Each structure stands twice: as structure tokens, then as C-alpha cells.
TrEMBL record:
It comes from Bifidobacterium fermentum. It comes from the Bacteria. The chain crosses the membrane at residues 12-37, 73-96, 103-121, 141-161, 197-216, 222-238, 250-269, 491-512, 524-546, 566-584. Signal peptide: none annotated. Keywords: Membrane, Transmembrane, Transmembrane helix. This is Uncharacterized protein.
Length: 601
């Protein structure tokens, strides 16, 4: 026993040293490969940066609510507490790593596995990718925030309803009693029921805030809602199934509602703020509200000219205008729609590609007789237009397409067009394991241009405008950091291959134990499989959207930043299943040996 205890202590010391060194090196990487801000991207990076300024609430123009404001909350948070963008980005990755490592430790009580998880998340190559990790844009916040929320979800699910008896098998070897019930677990861990409830509530609140920020970051973040709802109901199922004293059960159920309440409340507050300043109870007015309703109705019009590149052909828009007296009453709007922006010089010669009608209609309204007076007036205008189009659909003057629609905001597709997505979907999913050749190393730097947009943006990031790309360490120059990031990416390709094989082995071992009528740990493997399928489904929806762009890197940018963390967590759950099944096998072997010795006596 003393030898075992000494070995455990030595292991923990070594792991602590390794973690400290890995963390310090990772911090140096963030300080060398800087976050970069392309102020020239008016509709993307600059738009989101402008939302973080106080002037956002007095500038009611077509760009003000064109996108969700979630990223501005993050920018204002880290700048408000005095961090620069590089340190803030490192901190969110470290927070995600700590939470995931804590989750693994709390569930499995395996220091080596927990330490591996910490390092695996902290050094994830997505953090060094040019657009997905280093660009001052919302997609760079998505991967670490998903890891952070997933770690909190695992901690939250494990509270009061332990997801695994990590000492299964080991219990029989050392002949110690392992607590199975929540009250026994709390006694064993030295936690009172009251403190346990408080920690559970705090975890739920932070989880709810993290999920709210994910929903507020991007317009398509609704894809995470089914996953979140499943987690909430799964927790209630675990609570009802677990052996808890009735009073404690009721308390846990009540506290289990906190994440959903916090998420709903935070999203509602954002909408209420927009209602207060802009007159619209919406997160944005490009993919929500009446303007979005107009573009969705255009996509739904049956037209032989509609295809996966041209979502809103001129013929569909002409049909809509013919059936809308409100649109016909504003020739300037029609002229700007047809000859300005993305349709210039003439939409008949240059049809609008993909979802760019959502931007084109905003340009048209700005140059119309109505003008972009404010968000509320534009919503009222297109409420009338949409009512007219709905009457035309109802009377048969407008015919709805019979093609399949994944979402009203995406182009409808025929069965053949859907089958075209099989290969790009598989490719997008494969990038979660091997992102080559799309993975792009850092190649952009902050500009020293003295334009107002650039200066204000860099100042908000906490960057020294005179020296926006400093090198702090002579031994880790930018070139060396880029080479190291390249090696890390190659290492993770091999690691993903190994982890995928272990995931498959976990599946096989669980099936074998099932056939042999032996106990197997299916819970984590099932969650892992569900996360994989969920990621695959999102890859499918992304390729549905990005096919018109015909650029693999853009598809990679949209898909991998969102699905990569889910796949990585799934792989870790597969490894966990394998470890638990192995422990079960060891326990059964030890039990057989003891039984044999007893019989020999």
C-alpha cells in the first residue's frame, strides 16, 4: 500500500509539472501567433466590431442588426476587464481545457486520462488555424466555447447522478465498498447536500450562460438547441431513475431547470435590448423577422430557373413583385434591387448567388423611397409585403415549389440535388479527423493602417497600434511558432486516427460483452455515437448551404469549427468506454481468481 501511494503521489507530481509546462508553452504560442483584425471586411469582422462600440445603439442602419451581437458581448467582456485579444483567446481555451479535464476527473477518477484531456483540448490545432483560431471573428470563439459548454454538461449530468462507477472492477480487487447512491457519494467526497446543491446550481447557471452565448454568436446556432434539449431531458431522466431521497429528488429537479431558464433569459434580454433601442424583438433582422420572411418566400416560389447556385432567380422576384402592390409602389426599391449591390449592373445578366438576397434586399431598402429609417419601420413595410405574397400563394397566383426544404432559409432541393451532397458531406465530416489540405496556418497580421476602422478595432482588442504584431520571446519567433503549429496539426491527425480506432474498439468490446451477457458501459459510447451523428448532420446542412460558393475552405471554415469539438468529445467518450470495459474485465478476472482459490480450500 505505501509503495502504491508513493507511486500515485509521484505520478501526480509529474503530471502537474507536465501540465504547467504545456500551459506555459501554449500561452507563448498565443502571444506569438496573434489574433488579427481585417477591418476591410465591412460585412463581417468590422460589422461585429462595430457592435461592440457604444455608438451601436444610436446607429440604426442596414448593418446594425444584420448579424447577431453575441461576439460583441465577448469583446466588451475581455476588454472591460483589461485583457487583450491574445490573452483572452488563450484564457477561453484554457477554461475549456480545465472544465473538460475536471469533467473527466470527476467522472472517471483517472488523473492520467484527465491530464491528457486537458492537454488535448488546450493544444487543439483549431486554436492556431488562420480563420478558425486567430481571426478576430465569431467563428474563432466557437470551438473553445463548445468545448467549455460540453465540459460543463458532463459535470452537470454527473452531479447527483454519477454517470459511471469509475472504480468498477477495481473495487473487487481491493475489496472496498464504492458508494452507489447520491447521498453516499456526497459523504465519500466530504460534501454536504447543501454545498452540493449550490455547486450544481452554479454549474447549471454557467452552463446556461455559455449556451446562451453560443446561441447569440451566430444566426445558425439554433442547430445546437435539439442537443441542449436532449441533455436537459436526459438529466431529468437520470434524476427520476436514480435512488434519491424524495425531498432531495424534488430539489435536484428544480435546480435542473436553471440552465434552460438562464439560457432563455439571456437570449430574451438580448431581444429586449434590441426592442428598446431598435424597436424589434429579434436577435437580428437578416435571418429573422419580416425581411427574412420575404427572402424565405422568394426561395419557396416554384421556378425552373432556381438551382443550387441561384436561390432567388429573377423570375421568382418578378413574380413576387407582380403580386405585391407595396413593392410595385416603390420603383426606387425595385431599381436598387435589380441594378445595385450584388446584382450590378443588371440582375437579369447577373443573378444573385446563394443567400446574398438577404444582403441585397437591405441595400435595396436603403436606396428606396421608403429608405432605411429604422429597423421597426422596415419590419412593418415587409410585413405588408409578406401578407400580400401569402395571399398570392393561397389563391394560386404564386405556386410553391414541391422540392424538399431543409429550412425556409435554405434553397429547396430535388432528390437528385440532395444526393449530390453525399460526397461533400463525407468530406466535411472527414476534416474533423484530418483537415488537410484545408487547414491553413497563420498568415495574416494586424495592419498598421491609420484608418478609423482599423485604429478603433485594434484599440478595442488592446493592441498597441504602433507595434500590432510583437514578438515577446527570441526563442519562439513567429516563423517557429507557425512551424510548431504545423507539427501539432500533423500530430493530431495521427492522434485522431488512434482515437478513432480506440472508439471502434470500444464499440466492438461492448458488443462482445453484450453477446457474452456481461455488463458493459454503453452510456458514454451511446453519447459519443450521438455526438458523431449530430456532427455529421450539421456537416450535411453546411454543405447544403455552401455548395454555391464552390470553395472547400469556406465549407471547412463553416463546418469544422462547429463539429470538431463535438467529434473530439465523442472520441474521448469512446476512450472512456474502453477504459471502463477494461476495468470491468479486470474485476471479473480477479473475482474468478478469488473464487478458484476459495474452491481449492
Amino acid at each position: 500500500m505505501p509503495v502504491t501511494k508513493s507511486w500515485t503521489t509521484l505520478t501526480h507530481i509529474l503530471l502537474t509539472i507536465i501540465i504547467a509546462l504545456a500551459t506555459a508553452a501554449r500561452l507563448l504560442m498565443s502571444l506569438t501567433l496573434h489574433m488579427w483584425y481585417p477591418s476591410s471586411q465591412v460585412a463581417d469582422d468590422r460589422l461585429l466590431m462595430n457592435q461592440s462600440f457604444s455608438t451601436h445603439f444610436i446607429d440604426d442602419n442596414s448593418d446594425t442588426l444584420a448579424k447577431n451581437q453575441g461576439y460583441s458581448f465577448w469583446v466588451n467582456f475581455f476588454s472591460g476587464i483589461g485583457l487583450n485579444a491574445d490573452i483572452a483567446q488563450f484564457c477561453i481555451w484554457m477554461a475549456a481545457s480545465i472544465v473538460m479535464g475536471m469533467a473527466v476527473w470527476k467522472i472517471f477518477h483517472n488523473a492520467i486520462f484527465a491530464s491528457f484531456t486537458y492537454g488535448y483540448i488546450l493544444w487543439n490545432p483549431l486554436a492556431f488555424e488562420n480563420w478558425l483560431g486567430l481571426r478576430m471573428y465569431r467563428n474563432s470563439l466557437y470551438p473553445p466555447l463548445i468545448f467549455f459548454v460540453m465540459g460543463l454538461i458532463l459535470l452537470w449530468l454527473n452531479a447527483f447522478t454519477p454517470l459511471a462507477d469509475s472504480r468498477d472492477g477495481r473495487r473487487k480487487e481491493v475489496e472496498t465498498e464504492v458508494p452507489h447512491h447520491a447521498d453516499e457519494v456526497m459523504v465519500a467526497s466530504g460534501l454536504s447536500t447543501r454545498l452540493h446543491i449550490v455547486l450544481y446550481a452554479v454549474t447549471g447557471i454557467v452552463m446556461g450562460l455559455g449556451m446562451a452565448e453560443l446561441l447569440l454568436l451566430k444566426e445558425d446556432s439554433l442547430w445546437l438547441v435539439p442537443l441542449y434539449v436532449f441533455v436537459l431531458f436526459y438529466k431529468l431522466f437520470l434524476v427520476m431513475r436514480h435512488e434519491l431521497e424524495m425531498g432531495l429528488r424534488i430539489m435536484v429537479i428544480m435546480v435542473s431547470l436553471l440552465p434552460s431558464i438562464v439560457t432563455f433569459g439571456a437570449v430574451s434580454i438580448n431581444k429586449a435590448v434590441n426592442q428598446r433601442y431598435f424597436g424589434v424583438y429579434l436577435l437580428n433582422t437578416r435571418t429573422e423577422g419580416e425581411l427574412a420572411g420575404f427572402t424565405n418566400r422568394i426561395y419557396a416560389i416554384d421556378s425552373p430557373d432556381q438551382n443550387t447556385t441561384t436561390w432567388a432567380p429573377p423570375s421568382s422576384l418578378k413574380a413576387a413583385i407582380a403580386n405585391s402592390p407595396t413593392l410595385r409602389s416603390d420603383p426606387k426599391l425595385i431599381d436598387a434591387l435589380w441594378h445595385g449591390g450584388f446584382a450590378a449592373p443588371n440582375m437579369d445578366l447577373k443573378p444573385i448567388r446563394g443567400d446574398f438576397l438577404t444582403w441585397q434586399i437591405r441595400i435595396a431598402v436603403t436606396h428606396s423611397s421608403h429608405g432605411w429609417k429604422n429597423e421597426a419601420s422596415v419590419q412593418r413595410l415587409f410585413a405588408r409585403v409578406n401578407a400580400e405574397l401569402d395571399r398570392a400563394f393561397a389563391t394560386g397566383k404564386l405556386k410553391k415549389t414541391q422540392k424538399i426544404s431543409l429550412s425556409p432559409s435554405l434553397v429547396p432541393r430535388s432528390k437528385h440535388q440532395i444526393l449530390e451532397l453525399v460526397r461533400p458531406t463525407a468530406q466535411a465530416f472527414r476534416w474533423n479527423f484530418d483537415p488537410r489540405p484545408e487547414y491553413t496556418l497563420s498568415k495574416n497580421l494586424n495592419s498598421t493602417a491609420e484608418s478609423t476602422a482599423n485604429v478603433l478595432g485594434l484599440r478595442k482588442m488592446g493592441v498597441n497600434i504602433a507595434d500590432p504584431n510583437p514578438e515577446y520571446c527570441s526563442f519562439l519567433t513567429r516563423d517557429r511558432a507557425i512551424r510548431l503549429a504545423s507539427k501539432v496539426n500533423h500530430l493530431y491527425v495521427w492522434m485522431h486516427t488512434v482515437l478513432l480506432l480506440l472508439f471502434a474498439l470500444a464499440l466492438v468490446s461492448s458488443l462482445c460483452r453484450l453477446v457474452l451477457r456481461k455488463r458493459a458501459h454503453w452510456r458514454f459510447l451511446s453519447l459519443g455515437v450521438l455526438l458523431m451523428l449530430y456532427a455529421l448532420a450539421y456537416c450535411f446542412s453546411v454543405t447544403w448551404f455552401t455548395q454555391y460558393i464552390d470553395n472547400d475552405y469556406v465549407t471547412y471554415f463553416y463546418a469544422t469549427g462547429s463539429t470538431g469539438p463535438l467529434v473530439d468529445v465523442a472520441l474521448l467518450l469512446g476512450v472512456a468506454t474502453l477504459l471502463l470495459n477494461w476495468r470491468l474485465g479486470r474485476g471479473e478476472s480477479a473475482e474468478r481468481q478469488r473464487s478458484g482459490q476459495h474452491c481449492n480450500r
